[in-house]
Amino acid sequence: MADFTPTPADRFTFGLWTVGNTGRDPFGEATRPVRKAPYLVEKLAALGAYGVNLHDNDLVPIDATAAQRDALVREFQQALSDHGLVVPMATTNLFSDPAFKDGAFTSADARVRAYALQKTMHAMDLGAELGADTYVLWGGREGTEVDAGGKLLDALGWFRDSLNYLAAYSESQGYGYRFALEPKPNEPRADIFLPTVGSALGFIATLDRPELFGLNPEFAHETMAGLSFPHAVAQAIDAGKLFHIDLNDQKMGRFDQDLRFGAENPKGAFFLVKLLEESGYAGPKHFDAHALRTEDEAGVWAFARGCMRTYLILRDKVQRFGQDAEIQAALAAYRVQDAELEALTGTFTPANAGALKAHAFDRAALGTRGPGLEALDQLTMELLLGVR
Ligand code: GLT
Ligand code: MN
Ligand code: MN
To answer: Known NCBIfam families for this protein (predicted)?
Structure first.
């Protein structure tokens, strides 16, 4: 049996903010000490990760001087090169500082919108310096509690203008970033703009350079919206827009839990891994999750190892699914082919349409056929539960 030990070839990444999470929540203080970035790099590399991602302020405090910034960046770069980790993705913290309390790119205050752009351009410079080629935009504060401010349409326009501006900045600097929008329905705002993968896909089509923008969908966020994550990811892949992915887990209807990958819904995680592996997704697999607040440092590394191990175990299950004769027979039986009808429906021609309109269907037979999904699903469960 494989030992499910990750290697950099598996392209697993974590954010500095994930393994560095101190356990603070709205009701309680930190339960773990702050760890410095070079230490987190060393520990992640030892576990077999490929890379580490960051917000500007995960590394450089918001009020750091230029000299302090440069020293922190140098120390971080040294740790990356010492331990062989890369930084594939960077992003901006546009949610912690009180200046962003009513939004960043969608603030009703033009000064805040301008500051958000300034801060993001500096953070893009930092990401480029570290070698990142993907730039994530999570609009955590881009939303409202009160719609009496009347900014719903304006906010979408301000958001669009900001994204167009940042894409033009990236191109003018030669950074070549691919921007990945990360939707979330709520928390910390009551209603966040562009709340789902579908909304973000629709919005991207309205940008000046839509080809530079894609998605960074997160398991927890679509689940919070009551939606299926594999379905959302499939739509992003179909649109050629799966630029990055945030893997974690979540109980529906709760606060954003950011649980260890597969911890809550291993069956959903299995279908997600199947989709990623079979679609040829080649980007990093980023775990945007953190250890439970109950945990000490040993729990943090158990959490990180567990995320990667579960992915690899599920990847192995995907292979077994593909090799399981009974499952493959059930799948083949599920998909009914009909060469004559598929010829008529493949392309519209007046002749095809005429023949299709004249075709006599046995509707009763179509309605009575059992597709075998109960048996197929049980076979899948038994595979996942380890008895086949
Ligand atoms: C924050 C959020 C995540 C986003 C990160 C990127 S920050 O932790 O909960 O879902 O991916 O800004
Ligand atoms: Mn989350
Ligand atoms: Mn995320």
So the answer is: xylA_Arthro (TIGR02631)
Which of 384, 269, 380, 274 minimizes the C-alpha distance to 319?
274
Q: What number is the average pLDDT over the span 107-116?
A: 98
* Structural domain spans, the chain: 8-323, 325-384
Tell me which DSSP letter residue 86 carries: B
Domain 8-323 sits in CATH at 3.20.20.150
58 is catalytic: yes
Task: State mean pLDDT over 312-330.
Answer: 98
What's the whole-number average pLDDT of the chain? Answer: 98
Q: Provide the strand spans (E) within 248-378.
A: 285-287
Q: Which atom of ligand 1 is nearest to the CA of 258?
A: 9
**Does 1 have pLDDT greater than 80?**
no
Can you tell me the mean pLDDT for 36-62?
A: 98
Among candidate residues 3, 10, 25, 58, the one labeled active-site is 58
Ligand 1, atom nearest to 246 Cα: 11
246 is in an annotated binding site: yes
Tokens of 235: 């739509």
Is residue 225's pLDDT more than 80?
Answer: yes
Task: Reply yes or no on whether the pLDDT at 86 is more than 90.
Answer: yes
Q: Whole-model pTM above 0.85? A: yes
350 Cβ contact list (under 8 Å, min separation 6): none
- Name the catalytic one among 3, 10, 55, 109: 55
Token pair 């009160």 in the structure block, residue? 146
| Annotated catalytic residue 55 | yes
What contacts 244, CB < 8 A, 6 or more positions away? 89, 134, 136, 180, 214, 215, 216, 283, 284, 286
